Amino acid sequence: MLGAYLPILVLVVIACLFGLGSVVFSSLIGQKKPSQVKLAPYECGCEPVGSARERFSIKFYLIAMLFILFDIEAVFMYPWAVLFKRLGMFGLVEMGLFIVILFVGYVYVWKKGALEWE
Amino acid sequence: MDTLILGLPVAYYIAMVAKVLVAFVFVLLTVAYATYAERKIIGHMQVRLGPMRTGWHGLLQPIADGVKLFFKEEIIPSQASKFAFLIAPLVALIPAFISFAVIPFGDSVTIGGYTVPLQIAAYYDQAGKQVFDVNVGVLYILAMASLGVYGIVLAGWASNSKYSLLGGLRSAAQMISYELAAGLAIISVFMLSESLSLHKIVADQAGGAWYAFKQPLAFVIFFICSLAEINRTPFDLPEAETELVSGFCTEYSSMKYAMFFMAEYANMITVCAVTTTLFLGGWHGPAFLPGWFWFIAKVYFLIFLCMWIRATYPRYRYDQLMRLGWKVFLPLTLVNVVATGLWVMFISK
C-alpha cells in the first residue's frame, strides 16, 4: 500500500520544487521595466474598454452542469465494469437498465436544445 | 535480510528515488525536444526547414528557448488578481508532471538481486513474487487530467483580460466535455481487463492481444478525445490565434508562459503513454529488444501522430467541436459499452 503511494508523494514534491524554482529563478534574473501601458490588459493596442469580468454565455454553465451529471454516472460505471465478468447476467441487466435511464435523460437534454451552440 | 523503514527495505527507497528522478528527467527532456520535433516535423511537412541555426540542424533550439524565456521580463497586469495569476501556471504544470507516476514504462528488471518494476508508483513484493501498483491507476490519471483544467480557468479569470477569460471558458467547457467521452470510452477496456491497475491491464495484453484490436472504437474515440482534452490541433480553440490572440495565456510572459506550454506537452506525452498502456499493449513487443524500448517507441510514434494531425487538419469551429463531443462520441461510447457487455456475455464464452 505505502510502497505504491509513497513515490507519488515524492514526485509531487519534485514537481512542486521544479515549478516554484523556475518561477522564482526567472523572476530573479529577468529584467523589470514596468510601465503603465505595459501593465494594461492586452486589447490589440487599443485602450482597454471596461472590465473583463462581465457576464458570459449561459451555455458554459449548462455544459458544466451536464458534465457533473454524466461524469457521476460514468464514475458509477467504473466499479461495475471491473466486476462485470463476476456479476454475470445480473450485472448486465442492472447496468442495461441504468444506461437506458441515462439515455432517456440524454435524449431529453438533446431535445430541449441544451447541446446546441448557435 | 535488510533493515526495514516503515515496513519496506532500504533498496526500495533507493530504487524509488532513482525511478522518480530518471522518469522526471526523461519527461522533461521529452517535453523540451517535443517542441523541437514539432517545429522540425511540421516544417518539413510544409516544405520548410524548421530551426537550423542553433547547433547542428537546430538541435540546441529547446535549450536556447529555455534560456531566453528565463531572461524575459515578467509582466503581471495591474488589474490582474495577483495571487491567482501567479499560481495558475503551477496549477497547470504540476498535475501534468505527476500523472505519469502510475504508467508502467516496462516490466520488472532485476538489479543486483533486487527486482524493480519499471513503474514509479509500484513495488515488487520479493516474498510474494508479484508487482503491486496503485490499483486505481486509471482513476488517478483521470483525476490529474481534470486538475489541469483549474490552471487554465484560473489563468483565464485572473488575467482580467477579455481574450484570456474567453479562452479559459472555452477551454474549460471543451476539456470537461471530452473528458466525459474519454472516460466513458475506456469503460469497455475495464470490462475486459477486470482491473483499473495499469500494470495488470498491460499484462493482460501479452502476445499481441492488444485492446486496440478488441476495442477499435474505444481506441479511436479515446485518442481523439484526448487530443481535445489537451487542446491539441484540430481542437486548439482555447488558443485560437485568429480569434483570441493567445487564449488563456495572452497576459502571461517569461517562464510562466513557458510553463503552460510545458504542461501542454507533458500532457501530450501522458496521453500518448496512457493510450499505449490501455490500447497498444504497453511494453509488449518482439523479445529481441527490452520492454521499455517498445513502450517508448510506441509513445513516440503517437506523439509523431499528434504532430502529423496538427500539420494536416484545420481547426474545428466551436459549435462543431461541442456537437462532436456531446452528440457523436457520447452516444457512441454508451453503445460501445452495451455492445461489449453483450459480446462478453453471449459470444466470447
Give a written overview of the molecule.
- The complex is a heterodimer of chains A (118) and B (349).
- Helices cover 69% and strands 0% of the residues of chain A.
- The longest helix of chain A is centred in the last third of the chain and has 53 residues, at 59-111.
- Chain A starts with a helix and ends in a 7-residue tail after the last helix.
- Chain A has a domain at 56-118: NADH:ubiquinone/plastoquinone oxidoreductase, chain 3 (Methane Monooxygenase Hydroxylase, Chain G, domain 1), CATH 1.20.58.
- Chain A has two helices and no strands.
- Chain B contains 13 helices and six strands.
- In chain B, strand 3 and strand 4 form a beta hairpin.
- Chain B is globular.
- The mean pLDDT of chain B is 84.
- At the A-B interface, helix 1 and helix 2 of A face helix 1, helix 2, helix 3, helix 4 and helix 5 of B.
In short:
The complex is a heterodimer of chains A (118) and B (349). Chain A is mainly α and 118 residues long.
Observed structural traits:
heterodimer, A: 118 residues, mainly alpha, Methane Monooxygenase Hydroxylase, Chain G, domain 1, 2 helices, flat, B: 349 residues, two-stranded antiparallel ribbon, 64% helix
Mean pLDDT of chain B: 84
Rg of chain A, Å, rounded = 25 Å
Overall structural class of chain A, as computed from helix and strand content, comes to mainly alpha
Compute the number of helices of chain A.
2
Question: What is the strand content of chain A?
Answer: under 5%
Please tally the helical runs of chain B, counting DSSP H or I stretches of 4 or more residues. 13
Just name the CATH architecture of the domain at 56-118 in chain A: Up-down Bundle
The main pleated sheet of chain B reads as: 2 strands, antiparallel
Enzyme class (chain A): translocase
Subcellular location (chain A): Cell membrane; Membrane
Protein name (chain A): NADH-quinone oxidoreductase subunit A
Catalytic activity (chain A): a quinone + NADH + 5 H(+)(in) = a quinol + NAD(+) + 4 H(+)(out)
